[in-house]
Amino acid sequence: MRRRLFVQRSRESSLVIGAGLERASPAAGQPAERSSDNADESSERDRDIMRELVAFTRRSFTTAHPIPFGALVVRTTTGEAVVRALNEVRPLLEPTAHAEVHAIRAACRQLKRIGLGGCTLYTTTEPCPMCMGAILWAGLDRVVYGATIADIAKHVAQIHVAARELARRSDNPCEVTGPVERALCNALFEDPVLTPVYRLWRKRT
Questions:
Q1: Helix 182-190 and helix 44-58: axis angle, to 10°?
Q2: How far is CA 194 from each of CA 24, 31, 167, rounded to the nearest angstrom?
C-alpha cells in the first residue's frame, strides 16, 4: 500500500491525506477558556479535544508506521478542526517532520496565510524547542499539550527546554496550557506496539 503524508484536513476541504483513516469529527462546544500556565485551568473543551486527538493518533498503531506524536490545529473561538497531523520523521527521512510542524504547514496552506492568529494547536506532547519556535513564528494564540518533555524522555531523546520558557523569551505572545490528559497521552508512549519503533529511533540511521 502506498504511504501518503499523514495530514488530515477539516470539513472546509474535501481533501484528506492519510493512511486510510477516517476524518475525526471537530470538537464542539463553547469557546476555549483563556488559560494560564496551570493545567488545572484547562477547559473541559481542551480535555475533549485532547481525547479526540489521542484517539486519532492511536489509529496509526494499526498502520506500518505507528506514531505517538499527534497534533491538531483548531479555530480558537469555535474549536473547529483545521488540520490534524502525525510525526513523519522516519517515513520521510526528514528530521524536522514533527507533528506540530506538519500541522502548522498544512494549516497555513489550508487557510492561505502565514499567520495562524485565531488558532490553537493541540499536541500529544509538550513541543520541543523546534516545534515551539514554529508555533511562536506562526503566531498561534495558544498551545495545549498532553505529556511533558520529561515524560517522553523516558522513551526517546529530548531537548530539555520547556515550552513555557521559550514562550516567555519570545516577542510573539502565546499561551501555554498543559499537561492536559497527561495519563491518556502517556499511555500512547507506553503501548508495547512502540517498543521496536523506539529501538529504531535510537539508532538515528
A1: 10
A2: 23, 35, 31
Of 101, 110, 125, whose CA–CA distance to 176 is shortest? 125
* pLDDT over threshold 70, residue 168: yes
Residue 199 has pLDDT above 70, yes or no: yes
Has 12 been annotated as catalytic? no
> How many residues make up the chain in this entry?
205
Residue the block writes with cell 526528514? 94
3-state per-residue secondary structure call for 18-54 = CCCCCCCCCCCCCCCCCCCCCHHHCCHHHHHHHHHHH
Catalytic residue among 12, 22, 44, 100: 100
Read off the pLDDT of residues 99-144 as tens digits, 9 standing for 90 and up.
999 999 999 999 999 999 999 999 999 999 999 999 999 999 999 9
Strand partners, 70: 86
Confidence (pLDDT) at 200: 87
Q: List beta partners, residue 145.
A: 123
* Cβ-based neighbours of 57, under 8 Å, separated by 6 or more: 67, 68, 69, 70, 86, 124, 188
Look-up of cell digits 505517538: 68
